[in-house]
Amino acid sequence: MSAEETLAQIAKEVAVCKKCILHESRNKSVPGEGPANAEIMLIGEGPGFYENEQGRPFVGASGKFLSELLAGAGLKREEVFICNVVKCRPPANRDPLPDELSACNEYLDRQIETINPSIIITLGRFSMGKFMQGAKITQVHGQMRKVGERFVIPMFHPAAALHQAALKPALLADFAKLPELLNEARAGLGRSTPAPKKNEAPKEDPKQLNLF
Ligand code: URA
Ligand code: SF4
Questions:
Q1: What's the whole-model pTM score?
Q2: How far is the CA of 88 from the centre of ligand 2 (A)?
């Protein structure tokens, strides 16, 4: 199966999944979207009202803010894979519960394995918790860490910054640092484009070229 087919298969399973109680109140499940070979994966918390209506991640107010944050860092929304730790909307946007997180974790793990991103940006404390158990987001936000073969950058959730104005400057500053962190991560993974030798055309790495 190609990576695209595997992601489509996961989405098909999520659409009929009844592994946790969130299936009872969902309208549409929200598996996530983006290129199957994305270098960067963003993981949020769970679908909200509009996501539950449309079946797509980050399409409401926090999605608009996220697109702006990405654009500010030189990234297009279409070139990153965006998903959530739970694929169905928690009622009234409450926090996902531990048994819901563990029930849904399998889908996220398969998405990560399939896409194999170099860099994972976590949005909010629930997706941060998957990679950095016990970390406090107020202490580690914006700080990149190597987790296994990947780099993980924990960020505040855009919705949190919309609701608590005090968090907004930190989120803006963390995204402003993102281009630098991405280059650091690529260098750390030996993926920085080598300087061209004399009389040699620069090698084009399509994954890196259109990023900045
Ligand atoms: N908040 C999230 O965490 N995810 C979404 O998809 C939308 C809002
Ligand atoms: Fe299944 Fe995840 Fe939806 Fe729960 S949130 S029903 S585990 S897809």
A1: 0.90
A2: 6
